[in-house]
Amino acid sequence: MIKKRVGVLISGRGSNMAALIAAAKDASYPAEIVLVVSNRPEALGVATARAEGIATTVIDHVAFGKDRGAFERKMQEALERHGVELLCLAGFMRLLTPWFVARWHNRMINIHPALLPAFKGLDTHARALAAGVKIHGASVHLVVSDVDAGPIIMQGAIGVREGDTEETLAARVLAIEHRIYPAALALLASGRIRIVDGRCLIEGADDPASHLIVPDI
Ligand code: GRF
User: Residue 204 burial (CB < 10 Å; 0-12/13-18/19+)?
Assistant: First the structure.
């Protein structure tokens, strides 16, 4: 099997990146992580990736001031140099310009800690608690120019418990993120995803269990 070459963009802790790296160690996984790019020099995930023997590069956005285009061109160069074919955003906290998004059209995915289209943006867990939702979770979606808006590939849900705090909720959602992100990347890398009318169709997904995870936690 020829594995797809995957780049991961991070800004911080990198636990989702670590979940992707762990999944990709399996010989039958259809993708390999060939490069981790961080826009923050101090991101914990950079050390984690290095310890795993993955190539890393830091491209500090601060050095580019307001010039998002120059920052992105630098990222693009690094990604091309490493032959990256698919891109995963994993806690990457920079908005991307339409130029960069177009380059990676249908080849770039993101993980968002909420059941989209609910709770786009930041502070999703606090807002879910404030809204009193009973089910919360995470979504993996293709990236389009609008933030947290592209076709949804996979979602995982958990029940909200009485007495949940932002922290307890975040921890259970994060456990879900670590399951659905590698699973969604595997679907994309193995060519099982088709976009029809802005929605994601998954080949061989008659069984909803293949794109929905509702664990008992
Ligand atoms: C995750 O909750 C992810 O959903 C969001 O940012 C957080 C990143 O965490 N986009 P980590 O860096 O993967 O640990």
Answer: exposed
For the chain, where are the E strands, in sequence order? Answer: 4-10, 31-38, 56-58, 86-89, 108-112, 135-142, 152-159, 193-196, 199-202, 212-213
Count up the domains in the chain and report the number. Answer: 2
Average pLDDT, rounded, for the chain = 95
Question: For residue 38, with 0-12 CB atoms within 10 Å meaning exposed, 13-18 middle and 19 or more buried, which class applies?
Answer: buried
Whether residues 214 and 168 share a domain: the answer is yes
Task: Report phi then psi at 68, rounded to 5.
Answer: -60, -35
Q: What is the pTM of this model?
A: 0.95
Q: Whose CA is nearest to atom 5 of ligand 1?
A: 91
Task: Catalogue the active-site residues.
Answer: 112
**CA–CA separation, 172 and 157 (whole Å):** 10
Omega within 30 of 0 (cis) for the link into 117: yes
Q: Pick from 8, 174, 180 the residue to mutate for probing ligand 1's pocket: most ligand atoms within 8 Å of its CB.
A: 174
Please report which confidence band the pLDDT of residue 210 belongs to, taking 50, 70 and 90 as the band edges.
low
- Answer yes or no: do 169 and 98 share one domain: no
- Ligand 1 atom 3: the closest Cα is on which residue? 91
